[in-house]
Amino acid sequence: MDQLNLNSQNRKHCSIHPNQQITFIRLDKEEDKDILKCNLCIYEQKINCIPLDLIDNSDFKTILKGWPIQQDSQIYSKLLEFTKIRPLVEENRNKVCEYFKSLQLIINQLLELKKKEMLKNVEQHQINFDQSLNYCLLQYNIISQKEKLKEIIQTQYGNQETQNKMLFEIIRQNNKYEQQNKKYLENLINNVEQQFVVCLDSHNLIKQQIISLISNLDTFQVNININQDISELVVKEIIDLQRCSSNVKKVVIDFKEKDINSDVFTNVSNKLVENKNLSSLDMNFSKNRIKIDYVRNLMDVMVYNSLSIQNMSLNLSYCNLSSEMISILSEGLASLKNLENLQVELKHSRVSNQGANLIARALSQLQKIKKLNLDFGSDEKNPNTENSNKIQKEGVQNICEAINKFQNLTCLTLDLAKNTIGIEGVEIISKKLLGLQNLTELNLNLWQNQIQDGGVKIITDALKNNKNVKKLDLNLRKNQIQIEGARCISNLFLNNQYITSLNLNLQANPSIGSLGLSSITNALGSCFNLNSLSLNLNFNNIGDKGCQEIANAIEKLKGISNLSLQLYKNSIGKEGLLFIAKSIQKNQTITNLTLNLGENIMGDEKTNTFAKALQDCKHIRSLNLDLRKNQINAIGVKEIANLIEQSINITEFQLQMISNQIGNEGIIYISNALKKNKNILILNLDLWNNKINEKGVKDITITLSDSRSINQLQLDLRNIEIQSEESVALLKKLEISKNWSHISVQYDLADEKYYQDF
User: Fold this and answer.
1) Are strands 712-722 and 682-686 parallel, antiparallel or unpaired?
2) Which fold has domain 234-366+382-397?
3) How many Å apart are CA 15 and CA 36, to the nearest integer?
4) Distance between CA atoms of 26 and 714, rounded to whole angstroms?
C-alpha cells in the first residue's frame, strides 16, 4: 500500500465525492471507514472535524477546537484565551509596586498615629507614677508615724518618762500590725513598680507577628491564619466567631438579651465542634427565646469537646426551658468527663423537680468536679411568677445526692431562692452537703423558702461540725426567723471560729428582734479569724439599740479589713449612727467600708453628725456610702463634702444620694471637694432625682473633666431635664476628655434617655 501523503499539494480526492479534494480529519466516529473528508462531506453530514490546513500549519500555541476533549468548549476557549494574552510582566510589576506603596503608606500613617497616642500615654504614665509614688510615701509616713515620732522627740525631750511611754505605745502598735502593714506596703510598692517602667513586651510580640505576616508575602498564594496566636476569644457578635481557630483554648460567648436566631446557634456549634483544644467554655444566652434546635446545637458543642473541656459556664436564665430542653442539655453535660469547674445558671427558667432530676443524673456522671455553682433561684425584680423555678423535696434530694459523690469538691454555690423547699429540703441539704469535709467555700442561698427557726437550727448544727469551711455566704433572707433562729446562728459562730470570710443575709426577718441581734453580734465578736464581714439587716427595724450591738462587735474584730453593713430602712437615729461611726474609728484595721443607710430619715443634722464622725477614719481606703431617700438637703451635703476633701487615703469612693434634695448648692459642695482631693482614682456618683438643674450638671461635669486623678467614673444624673446644647456638649466632652479606663454616664435629654458605657 502506498504511503499516504497529506501535504496540500499532494492530497487525494474524496472517495464519496471524487471531484473534491480531502481537507479534514473526522474526530467523532471511529466506525467510519473514511476518516478523511472533503468539504461536501462536512457540509452534508455536519460532522466534527479539524481542517488539515490547520494541522499542517500548526505551531506550539495552536489550539485544536474539539480535540482531544470533544465535548468541552470551555477548555478550548480558556486555552485559546491564554495564547492570545500579551506579556503581563510590566502590568504585574506595576500592580505589585502599587500594592506595596499603598501598604507602606497606610502602615506609616497608622504607626505615626499610634506613636503619638503612646507618647501622650507616656506623659499620663508619668503622672500615674508620681501619684502612685506620692500615695505610697504618704501611706509609709502614716504607718511609720514619722511625724509623731518627730514630735515626741522634739517636744517631750525634757520629760523622759512621758517620752518613753509614748514611744513604747508606738512600738507596741507597730509590732501588733507589722505583718498587715508589711503586706499593704508591699502591694503599694508593687503598684509603684508597675508604673515605673513602660513595658513594651506585648508591643514587641505584635511587632514579631507583623514581621511574620509580612514574610508570608513572598508568594501570590498567601494563606495566613491570623488567629494562630489567639488562645482566648471573647464573642459578643456573630462576626467574632470568624476569629475562632483550633488554637483557641478559652472561649467566652456573651449573647445575653440579643434576640438571637437559629443561625447564631448553628454558627456557634459549627465553629466550636471543630476545636479539639478547647478547655474552657463560657456561654451566656440568658434572656433569649430558646428553641429546642438551639439546645441541640449546644449539646453538640459539649459532646464534640467532651474530653478537652475542663471549665464550663452556661447561663440560660430567663429562657423558659421545657423539660425536653433540659434533658438535652443534661445529656451534653454528662459527656464532659474531665470537667473540674462547672457553673450552670437557670434562674427563673421554669425548672421543676423533673428538670432538677435530669440535671442531677448528669452530675452523677461527673466525678472530677472541684468547683460547682448551681443557680436555680428567682429574681425579686421579675414579677412574672409563671416562669419561676419550682424545685421541691424530690428535686433537692436528687441534686444533693449527686453532689455528695464529688470527692474533690472544695467550692460549692447552691442557689434555691424562692423554691419553697421547706424544712424537709433543708434537712436533705444539711445531711448530704454541709458535712462534706473537703469544702472550704460554701455559698448557700435559701432566700424565702419558709424554713423558719427549725430550718435554721438544722443548717447551723451541720455547719458547726465542719471546721474546714473558711468562706461562708449564707442567705436566709425573708424566712420568718425569730429569736430562737438567731440564737442558733450565734451558736454556729461560737462553735466555729475558723471562718475568715462571712456574708450573712438576714434581710426582712424583723422578728429576730433586739435580743436575737444581740445574740448574733456577741457571737460575731468572738470570730477573731474574720478578715471580711458582710451583714445584711435591711428592713429589720433594729433602731439605735441594734446599731449599738453591731458597733460592739465591730470594735472586737481587730483582724477585719473588709466591712459591709446593709442597714436600709431600720429607723436609725443620731445615736445609732454615732455608735457605728465611732466603732469604725476605733477599729483601725478596716480599709474597705460599705455602709447602706438608705431611707432612715436622717435629714441634714444627723447626716452632718455622721459624716463628721467618719472624717476621723483615716484608715479607710475604699468607701461606699449609700444615703438614698434620707431627706438630705444642701446643708446636709456640706459635711459629706468635707469627708470627701479630708479623706486623703481614700482611692475608691462611691456615693449614692438617690432621691434627696441636695440641689445645685449641694453639687457645688461636692465639686469643690473633688477638686481638692487628688487621691481618688475610682468614683461612683449617683445623684439621680435630686432637684438639680443644668447649672449643677455644668459644675460637676467640668470638675470631673478637669480631674487628673480619677480614671474610672460612674455618674448618674437622671431625672434632670437637659435641654441646652452647652450642657450636652459638656457631657459629651466628659466622655472623651481623657483616656478613662472605664466611664459610665447616665442622664436624661429633653426627649430621650441617654446612657453611655465604655
Assistant:
1) parallel
2) 3.80.10
3) 9
4) 87
What does the CA dihedral 38, 43, 48, 53 come to, rounded to 10 degrees? 40
Among 695, 623, 685, 643, which Cα is nearest to 660's?
Answer: 685
| Phi, psi values for residue 375, rounded to 5° | -115, 105
Q: Dmax over Cα atoms in the chain, in whole Å?
A: 148
Q: Which of 197, 81, 193 is nearest to 136 (CA)?
A: 193
For residues 508 and 160, give the distance between their C-alpha atoms in angstroms, rounded to a whole number: 58
- Alpha-carbon distance of 153 to 93, in angstroms, equals 84
DSSP 3: P
What's the pLDDT at 217?
Answer: 66
CATH placement of domain 367-381+398-757: 3.80.10.10
109 to each of 114, 115, 597, how far by Cα in Å?
A: 9, 10, 55
- What is the spatial order of strands in the sheet that 36-37 belongs to? 36-37, 24-26, 49-51
Q: How many helices (H) and strands (E) does the chain have?
A: 23, 22
Grid coordinates standing for 736?
472623651
- Given CA atoms 284, 286, 292, 293 in this order, what sign does their dihedral have? negative
Residue 157 has pLDDT above 60, yes or no: no
Structure confidence at residue 751 (pLDDT)? 53
Segment 44-52 shows an average pLDDT of 69
Beta strand 36-37 with 24-26: parallel, antiparallel or unpaired? antiparallel
**pTM of this prediction?**
0.71
pLDDT of residue 671: 97
pLDDT tens readout for residues 331-364: 999 999 999 999 999 999 999 999 999 999 999 9
Looking at residue 46, its pLDDT comes to 64
What is the gyration radius of the CA atoms in the chain, in angstroms? 39
- CA end-to-end span of the chain: 95
pLDDT at 61: 73
Residue 437 pLDDT greater than 70, yes or no: yes
